[in-house]
């Protein structure tokens, strides 16, 4: 049998397996540039791959490292490898900075063109929700470019997968009814059943998982410190544990702002997933100040996955199912209300237990990786 004929038979067999809901799915997750020091989208793909494996399906991760090899070599590699992908389901991961260093993601259009030419069953996973208007000619041009690519990617996708409900997005075309909404999960794998917390912790510990870096680090540190000092005036021996991306960058500002208070502070950098889960499990509540909470915020969902009450801000992306979890939300940047909400959670045992129960239920129903894999499988095959 010739190699061309063998390849054709292989592709035919693959297509049959993909179309038969009784047989395992064989999927490809395609990503681009990796972020540093951690890459949330890569973690998303790896955890999703493990969840598919538990179902008996297979998700292969392919990384198109154009930032290392250059765009020409990366696209040539994709052109060659994608020959065998006809009728395969490809989950193209999309953020603007995954496909561009400066936020002009025209490279994603070239990737889309190759995938469409290869006739894959294209699922675009939109990790970016939308891009807010900006000031300045260059910034406005960048935002216009990003929203243009979002719309093109949506139209090209057989399965557009949104990480925020369609009702919260303004850029969607009229054909948005075919989109499927699938929230992201926690930044670490599950470790068995999570128990509902029925009692307030003896030594209250507030966890902050991740701080936005750059110009946002100091304002966020001030908001965190303000809420903690307010709580410390009502609660003895309160502790603050800050870890994850941006934590070390914010440490100096946190120590300055908390100087003279009775808040015990521990700061860690980027931690492995198991250690993140351990810190959250030992905490009593998650304080989330990295912008409004939404179903694409993996660091907020991490607290929900551990059965924690979550105190944070609401915003345009805040909608069910995230609001079904144990979240106590205030208007964006209202740090007085944020501080009051933190105190309420840590002093009201009935409220604390209710929020924990809601987090446990929402985590199992919406945000577990097994649930997320099942939602994708249902979108692809309707077999659930």
Question: How is this structure best summarized?
Answer:
With 384 residues, this protein is of the alpha/beta class. It is 44% helix and 16% strand. Strands 2-1-3-4-5-6 form a 6-stranded parallel β-sheet, with helices on both faces. Strands 9-8-7-10-11-12 form a 6-stranded parallel β-sheet, sandwiched between helices.
What does this structure look like?
With 384 residues, the protein is an alpha/beta fold. The protein has two domains: 3-185 and 369-381, 3-Layer(aba) Sandwich (Rossmann fold); 205-367, Rossmann fold, CATH 3.40.50. It is 44% helix and 16% strand. The chain contains 13 helices and twelve strands. A six-stranded parallel sheet has the order 2-1-3-4-5-6, with helices on both faces. A six-stranded parallel sheet has the order 9-8-7-10-11-12, sandwiched between helices. Helix 7 crosses helix 11. The two termini are 39 Å apart. The relative contact order is 0.12. Residues 1-20 have low confidence and may be disordered.
């Amino acid at each position: 049998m010739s190699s061309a004929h063998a390849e054709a038979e292989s592709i035919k067999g693959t297509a049959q397996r993909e179309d038969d809901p009784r047989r395992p799915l064989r999927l490809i997750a395609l990503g681009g540039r990796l972020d540093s020091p951690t890459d949330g989208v890569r973690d998303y793909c790896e955890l999703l791959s493990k969840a598919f494996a538990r179902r008996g399906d297979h998700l292969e991760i392919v990384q198109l490292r154009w930032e290392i090899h250059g765009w020409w070599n990366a696209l040539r590699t994709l052109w060659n490898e994608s020959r065998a992908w006809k009728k395969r389901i490809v989950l193209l991961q999309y953020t603007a900075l995954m496909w561009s260093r400066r936020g002009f993601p025209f490279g994603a259009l070239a990737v889309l063109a190759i995938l469409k030419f290869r006739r894959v069953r294209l699922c675009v996973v939109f990790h970016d929700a939308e891009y807010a208007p900006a000031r300045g000619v260059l910034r406005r041009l960048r935002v216009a470019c990003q929203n243009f690519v979002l719309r093109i990617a949506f139209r090209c996708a057989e399965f557009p997968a949104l990480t925020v409900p369609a009702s919260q997005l303004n850029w969607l075309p009229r054909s948005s009814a075919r989109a499927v909404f699938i929230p992201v999960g926690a930044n670490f794998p599950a470790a068995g059943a999570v128990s509902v917390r029925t009692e307030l912790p003896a030594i209250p510990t507030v966890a902050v998982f991740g701080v936005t870096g750059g110009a946002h680090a100091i304002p966020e540190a001030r908001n965190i410190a303000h809420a903690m000092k307010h709580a410390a005036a009502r609660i003895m021996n309160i502790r603050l544990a800050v870890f994850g991306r941006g934590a070390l960058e914010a440490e100096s500002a946190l120590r300055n702002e908390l100087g003279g208070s009775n808040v015990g502070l521990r700061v860690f950098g980027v931690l492995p997933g198991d250690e993140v889960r351990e810190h959250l499990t030992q905490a009593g509540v998650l304080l989330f100040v990295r912008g409004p909470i939404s179903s694409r915020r993996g660091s907020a969902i991490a607290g929900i996955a551990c059965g924690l009450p979550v105190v944070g801000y609401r915003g345009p992306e805040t909608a069910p199912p995230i609001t079904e979890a144990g979240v106590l939300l205030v208007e964006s940047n209202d740090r007085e209300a944020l501080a009051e909400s933190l105190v309420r959670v840590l002093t009201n045992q009935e409220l604390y237990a209710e929020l924990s129960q809601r987090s446990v239920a929402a985590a199992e129903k919406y945000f577990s990786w097994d649930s997320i894999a099942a939602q994708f499988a249902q979108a692809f095959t309707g077999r659930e």
